[in-house]
Amino acid sequence: MSSLNIAVLSGGISHEREVSLRSGRRVADALTARGHNVTIIDPDANLFATLKNLNPDVVWPALHGSSGEDGAVLDLLHAAGYNYVGPSASAARLAWSKPVAKTLVSRAGVRTAPSITVAREAFRELGAGSVLELIASELGNHVVVKPASGGSAQGVSIVTKAEDLPRAMVDAFTYHDVALVEKFIAGTEVAVTVTDGASGATALPAVEIVPLDGVYSFEARYNAGETTFFVPARVSDEIAEKISAAAVTAHDTLGLSQLSRIDLIVDEAGEPWFLEANALPGLTETSSAPLAIEASGVDLGQLYEALARAAAN
């Protein structure tokens, strides 16, 4: 087969810029090793002029955070007529909003934790004290607070005491004007990479995530040695099937395509609970998606090439 001219977009100006740069470099290296012509582009005001001069066969958006995962860049790439690896912009937007994704996936039959969504404006106007009291009465004191949109666990807090909830809300509001507060579900955290093929969506082996300090924080995700990964996850075949089914359901329900990552918690009874979906998953050296791909017996470069060729056609 002939080689492809591929533009990899990485960097940008989101809070996850450095992660995006690392993902882009790894994708570019894998595709170059397969004999393709790869150009890495850090999106800026000259992006579309650069793409016009390059005239790529396909664009690979290795972008994380806002403007990448929220569908904005994908919308523009589609409008400009470029083939790209990844979901439609509308699907990316559904996954990017955690409250929306939870609602849709829950309606599709996958468990999601009880939650309350709070806008910064309402938090102020209705009185922080009364809002916090309502949250505690509904969800208890053991909760997870996170920005309604965002990735890499930025702005996410696990709260076990009522006095820690105000600070957690402030941290979440630092990254988004809306916070999602969920009842804490104890269990094993797993990440499931889902790929699309001729026969539909397929879940790769689940990656079990065990952070050394117990919290899968930004540092635990991207600093080597901070987290232990078990691939496949240390669960029975029956539970593994439930995990895979839940991940594929979330992937299909949100309209994701080609490559996604679905994060789940498996409770003590072996039931998976949906946490969030990632339309453009991290592909760094410490990301779970490459681990899952390798555990499935597929070469990273071979899969990335297949995805690029499918998008180019």
Mean pLDDT: 92
Count of folded domains: 3
Helix content percent band: 25-40%
In the CATH scheme, the class of the largest domain would be Alpha Beta
- CATH superfamily label of the largest domain: ATP-grasp fold, B domain
State the oligomer.
single chain
Beta-strand fraction estimate:
15-25%
Number of strands: 14
- Mind telling me which CATH architecture of the largest domain this is? 2-Layer Sandwich
The CATH topology of the largest domain corresponds to: D-amino Acid Aminotransferase, Chain A, domain 1
The stretches of 5 or more residues where confidence is low (pLDDT under 50) are none
Q: Would you tell me the structural class of the helices and strands?
A: alpha+beta
Radius of gyration: 19 Å
Q: Counting H and I runs of at least 4 residues, what is the number of helices?
A: 12
Largest sheet: 7 strands, mixed
The separation of the N and C termini measures 13 Å
Name the helix and strand elements from N-terminus to C-terminus, one letter apiece. EHEHEHHHEEHHEEHEEEEHEHEEHH
> Could you say which overall geometry the principal axes of the C-alpha atoms support?
globular
